[in-house]
Amino acid sequence: MSEVPTIRHGRIKIGESLRLNVVQAGPLSGEPVLLLHGWPQTAHTWRKVMPLLAEAGYRAIAPDLRGFGDSSKPEGVYSKLTVAGDLVALLDQLGIASAWIIGHDLGGQVAYPFSAQWPQRTRGLVFIESGLPGFGQERAMDIAAGGSWHFGFNRAGDIAEELVRGREHMFIRSMIRREKVGVFDPTAITDEDIAVYASAAAAPGGLRAMFAHYRALIPQDREDNLVLGSKPLTCPVLAVGADHGYGEGAFNTMKKVAIEPKSWIAPDCGHYVPEERPRELVDALLAFMAGRL
Which entry of 244, 246, 271, 272 is annotated as an active-site residue? Predict the structure, then answer.
């Protein structure tokens, strides 16, 4: 029986005012895989994926992004290009020249500008159940076109924070268990897992920071994406969807910004692919990173 890979935790200083909480697994000599969680989650998203990557010999690195979990929650800019810059500095601190960049949901919105702005640091990009302002996500933000209400709510300012304060578990549970683009298998994300995300949101500055990521979507992230998207990605790209999530949405987005992206759809799965279908996802990642997909 193989041993369970050791999970390593630590907070790494980035510049003068930012510390990123980072979870790692796998050999230090392994190919680095940078795992970027979605909203309103933390590195806990990758709890099922990291041991599988480590068992395959990869070095799995999952930070809490700026504003989430046990990472710093500074005032100011939360554009995805800024957050991507945090991760470049993180790789520098870890002595890593380049990595596979894998992002789910909001993490995909960070992974794209990382790969576009710093192609020399990117071995390949995996874009999971995500979209990009400037390249079609505006429709998902438009309630009149069938988009989700939470885009507007999350951008509403102080009132959003005050309405959610003290109700973090209820709010996050509702988002994860929603009928449209929610979890398909409710046992994949337990109430205990939701409590991890809710506790992070309830920490000082947690709500302000998590909503700040949405407030940057328009106009800053859209403007940044349009500039970056004027030159298509040339690195290997895999777009991952789910049959009960956004389907081909991630692939349709990547076709606008990348050269010949690959596609994979998780079966019997909702929006939360890393938590609902970790083994199938890792199998697809291993095939992609080995050039077999």
Answer: 271
